[in-house]
Amino acid sequence: MKEIHDYQSDIASIRSVMERSVKFLSLSGLSGVLAGIYALVGASSVYYLIYYPYSPFGFRFYYVNEQAIVVKLMLIAATVLILSVVTAFVMSQRKAKRMGTSIWNKTSKELLLQLCIPLATGGLLILILVSRGYFGIVAPACLIFYGLALINASAFTVREIRYLGFSEILIGLIAALLPGYGLIFWALGFGVLHIVYGSVMHYRYDS
């Protein structure tokens, strides 16, 4: 029985090493939670900037058409993005150090490439939409291209990333069907979903 147990232990160790060589497992669940919190704070700032004191159900009756407001919205979005990326990098680096692995390897490079292609494409499209004044499509486009990026990169990390990607696309499509409520769906996709996903990731892989 002892030999069988040793064989099973060896097989588990080999499987773990192989999985680490082909998948990026240093993603931090807590960084997902924090990214969701950043997004909710950003969405709240946008709400007070544009819509306050009207209720969320009155969003569709108000439109963003002033250049000064658009600039502020882009600054808020950029701040949320930068904070999320920096937090993910720092916390993933710490996790990788605990695991005795490097955060920058062949797998992480491939994951980053597969993530950036849809994100860069979506980002350029969104800039074109903003320059043409199509503000109502921006939130759905953000969610859909982000979801596509996650699905594209999911082959190189944990499977939960794929489910998050499909969820983001679904919310983006619903947002496209309900123009005028983009901020609500943006907060739901980038805020609530990230908090739920990050909590699940932390429970399964970090604790």
Write a concise keyword list for the protein shown above:
single chain; 207 residues; 78% helix
Structural class category: mainly alpha
> What's the main sheet like?
none
Order of helices and strands: HHHHHHH
Measure the end-to-end span.
Answer: 30 Å
The helix count comes to 7
* Approximate strand percentage: under 5%
Radius of gyration: 20 Å
Helicity range of the residues? Answer: over 70%
Count the beta strands. 0
Shape: globular
- The unreliable regions are 10-22
Report the average pLDDT across residues: 79
Describe what this molecule looks like in 3D.
It is a single chain. The protein has 207 residues and is mostly helical. Helix content is 78%, strand content 0%. It has helices at 2-22, 29-50, 67-99, 106-132, 138-153, 160-177, 182-206. Helix 4 (106-132) runs antiparallel to helix 5 and helix 6 (160-177) packs antiparallel against helix 7 (182-206). The model is unreliable at 10-22 (pLDDT under 50).
Outline:
With 207 residues, the protein is an all-alpha fold. It contains seven helices and no strands. It is 78% helix and 0% strand.
Helix and strand layout, with pairings?
Blueprint: H1 2-22, H2 29-50, H3 67-99, H4 106-132, H5 138-153, H6 160-177, H7 182-206
Helix pairs in contact: 2-3, 2-7, 4-5, 5-6, 5-7, 6-7
